[in-house]
Amino acid sequence: MTDTASNYPRIAAIIPAYKVRPFVLDVIAKIGAEVERIYVIDDACPDQSGKLVAEKCNDPRVEVLFLDENRGVGGAVMAGYKAALDAGLDIFVKIDGDGQMDPALLDDFVTPIALGYADYTKGNRFYDLENIGRMPKVRIFGNAALSFMTKLSTGYWDLFDPANGYTAIHREAALRLPMKSISKRYFFETDMLFRLGTLRAKVMDVPMDAQYGDEVSNLKISKILGEFLGKHLRNFCKRIFYSYFLRDMSIASLELLAGLIILTFGIAFGAVHWMHSYALHIATPTGTVMISALSILCGLQLLLAFLNFDFSRVPKQALHLTRHPRNRKHAP
To answer: pTM for the whole thing?
Structure first.
């Protein structure tokens, strides 16, 4: 990753522990020596996963944090982030404690951040077609739907598999996160992407294979699609307002406004005159049809131009390159 030990990033592994008692010790044992600190966060686990680690794990890197109430995966990860920030570590890797994520891949997540290519990396299980074939069909459908909604609400059009929890983040990006506002439960991973998007952080996908064993997933995609749809709609509206009207205005802002107005007019104008003609049992005048059709086509064209601009605005540079103290030493 880097050539000298002095520049080697200090890495923390963060493991939320909730109902992972049969797997968590094995996950910890597989974490390599490049990781300086391992935080196991017992999220008020009824199986006392944290107590098991504290009593049975002899790895000196491990520190168990006990939460007084269940905060969900997001709350547990935020607790780990805060501990790693306080310890002055550089890159924080979140690994689930249920054995589905291979700790041997950790370097794949850390390297793009250490080299300055990204502020945040996340797993993507959809690169390998053979791996997709092993996935349950409901997961494939659910992830495809969630991925499309996430692209709209976050602006990261180049990412996929948004519910993937294998992630890594640079401390400079973590410092700028509004940790109290981030969703604490199943929407955590996608809400993280929305928050990172508002920071203009660079995010990269990391190809990986999912491991399916005897673990029981607490996430039922069929039950949360409706809830996620509402939250994505909320984040989409926030993103558009923040990016195109509050923090900046551009030709795309005008294309969006004009496109919505003209499209709405075309649909409403056409519908009103069609219903009027239907009620009177007469043909709708050609001129009326043309006004409606042209308005709809012009509105759609403007919205497509806006989307094309939005595609091009995916962050391309890591923000920590200009904000990390090691990169400020030559500043005046």
So the answer is: 0.86
